[in-house]
Amino acid sequence: MNIRSILLAGLLSTVAGAALAQTPAQMHEAATVLDTHFDTPANFGAEGWSIMERHDVAVDGTQVDYPRMVEGGVDGGVFVIFTPQRGRGPEADAEARDHAFVRAGEILQMTAREHEHFALVTTPAEAAAAEAAGKKFVFISIENGAPVAGDLTLMDTFYKLGVRMMGPVHFANNDLADSSTDPKGPEWGGLSEKGRAFVARANQLGVVIDPSHASDQTLDQILDLSTAPVILSHSGVKAVYDHPRNIPDDLLRKLAAKGGVIQVNAFSGYMVDVPRIPERQAALAALTAKYGQRRDVAAENRDAYLAELAAIEAAYPLPRANLDDLMKHILHVVEVAGIDHVGLSGDFDGGGGIEGLEDVTTFPTLTERLVAAGFSQEDLDKFWGGNALRVFAEVQAAAAR
């Protein structure tokens, strides 16, 4: 072969390689994109709000709906039954139980009503089948164990309704466990006896345990007791930003050794210093008293509401985390725990969202950053959904054994 032929062959090889190379957008589309913590069901009861209509985070504050999931290449999500910790005792337990049943019913109604676009799933295989059929798959989780704290047999009831992930605790301590953020500090030194029974029953049922809001001691004990991996569905790492909701490296390594996954959270308050401004809080409370919650503001009052909200934001601005901050958490997890133990949750419709990652339409932008950082298609497949789906499968297989 002469020099000219060699050069031509090399050029053709380079062109062929370039043709095979995928863009970040194509790589994003190729991955199964799963967010493990959508608080979107909180919107289902809002008058006139439909998940099938495109909304605007700048208008009603919501971050997830079907049109935006399509635009963001999002294949599915873990839709959350969130119950605030309003009290303890028989009356509070019954109130929490009933609240969770209502929210569960709203999720089931949505997936039944929009069955051409959404599919309720309980296993990774069902999720894959839904994706292949062109539908968005919906897992259900319970955030805060208050609905079952009074009677752990309710875990079986919610399981029958389709719940496959449960978190024992939220912002405040409850009858199951200590929270990472209760101002009173630890009550149980981790898990209560009932909390230990919660862990055991979750393992028996094949329910993924989500200790996202749990104290470090609670997480440590769950990792010791659980016979299956766990998922931190929306959390960060303390080595990057020191906040009680973020986990230290020793527990990050222990989580990985257990086979678990941390879904890095896009929540400003857990990533940068966000000062508390009493005047801002008072102004926002007055705005809510005047118009109602943002998602509930009547159409005829929308412009006035947004103008007054903008004035408050201008008068009392708060710093916001950005994609650089998020990447620091992601890269730290990869370094300490490995690519097999990292994922993402925007904590959308639950207070999440940072500059550059405002709603689900912006997920491809994060993929661009990940590709620029050197992550491959195989890495993206794990990061965007593969790792979390692996844990679901392993938890369910452990229960079957």
What would you note in describing this structure?
- This protein has helices at residues 3-20, 24-30, 57-60, 66-71, 90-113, 124-132, 146-149, 154-160, 193-205, 216-225, 249-257, 278-291, 302-315, 323-336, 363-372, 377-400; strands spanning 34-38, 76-82, 118-120, 136-143, 163-166, 208-209, 231-235, 261-265, 342-345.
- It is α/β, with parallel strands linked by helices.
- The protein starts with a helix and ends with a helix.
- Residues 1-20 have low confidence and may be disordered.
Would you spell out the secondary-structure blueprint of this structure?
Blueprint: H1 3-20, H2 24-30, E1 34-38, H3 57-60, H4 66-71, E2 76-82, H5 90-113, E3 118-120, H6 124-132, E4 136-143, H7 146-149, H8 154-160, E5 163-166, H9 193-205, E6 208-209, H10 216-225, E7 231-235, H11 249-257, E8 261-265, H12 278-291, H13 302-315, H14 323-336, E9 342-345, H15 363-372, H16 377-400
Parallel strand pairs: 1-2, 2-4, 3-4, 4-5, 5-6, 7-8, 8-9
